[in-house]
Specification:
globular, single chain, mainly alpha, 68% helix
Length: 260
């Protein structure tokens, strides 16, 4: 799948490698979803009232939940990323002008397609829809699904350390990058898993994933670049985190924004 005279499988940002990997991961995701559906059907076939619609609901594919899940996810992400959004505004990176930076033909700019479309969609369908549906159907509590499944999601991103090693990066830098990647993706995984379980839809976690990829890792040290707003920016990081923690439960509570 990968051979090309100009790149190896470790050149993850090479256009050819990205396109081939996107094809592969899309196929793997479809196979995973079909396999998950078959297993769920087999496990629950003794229930005469069980049908395809219920399988789709377990996978978070209920269209009734899609819009509420997206709205809740966007509001919560904007609150959580209050500090980074303020910095983006000061840098002139926040607003409709950002959309002009997205190329019209995404396939000719595969890094955008990978980071903001294929990556988030396939990862959420596998690590949230398939994994949590199977684990919960097997008898594992939803709390354990939310707690443990994001760790697998985090570990799945550590492979990037191999590419850094092949390129000859310093071992300390590789370890630091792997640890930060593991922690950030695991924490996000907890948020996405919580959204999936509480809103019963994969659309909200997917939009949250795209949002986080657009924003990147929050960096409070950037506040030092704006002396006049420094303390305000630091405060916004704290307010955003506290606001997210306070709002998560009531905003995802069935019957408030999400249908029961």
């Amino acid at each position: 799948m990968f051979p090309t005279p100009l790149a190896t499988i470790h050149d993850r940002d090479h256009p050819h490698i990205m396109k081939q990997r996107m094809r592969g991961v899309t196929l793997a995701t479809l196979v995973s979803l079909v396999t998950t559906g078959v297993v769920l059907w087999y496990w629950q076939s003794s229930n005469e009232q069980f049908n395809v619609t219920q399988i789709a609901n377990q996978l978070g594919l209920d269209p009734r939940m899609a819009l509420p899940s997206v709205v809740v996810a966007l509001v919560l992400m904007c609150v959580l990323f209050l500090g980074p959004l303020i910095i983006s505004h000061l840098e002139g990176m926040c607003g409709w002008d950002m959309l002009k930076r997205v190329p019209g033909n995404l396939w000719n700019q595969p890094i955008y397609l990978r980071n903001y479309v294929v990556g988030p969609v396939t990862e959420e369908l596998v690590f949230r829809s398939a994994v949590i549906a199977l684990w919960s159907a097997s008898g594992l509590s939803l709390k354990m699904c939310v707690l443990v499944s994001p760790v697998i999601f985090g570990v799945a991103h550590v492979h990037r350390a191999v590419s850094l090693y092949v390129k000859g990066d310093a071992l300390g830098r590789i370890l630091m990058s792997a640890v930060v990647q593991l922690l950030y993706t695991t924490v996000f995984g907890w948020i996405a898993a919580g959204l999936f379980v509480r809103t019963k839809s994969i659309t909200g976690p997917t939009v949250a994933h795209i949002f986080c990829n657009l924003q990147g890792l929050p960096d409070p040290t950037k506040a030092a670049q704006y002396p006049g707003y420094k303390y305000f920016i630091w405060l916004s990081f704290v307010v955003g985190l506290v606001g997210f923690l306070v709002l998560f439960e009531p905003m995802t509570r069935p019957g408030v924004f999400v249908p029961e």
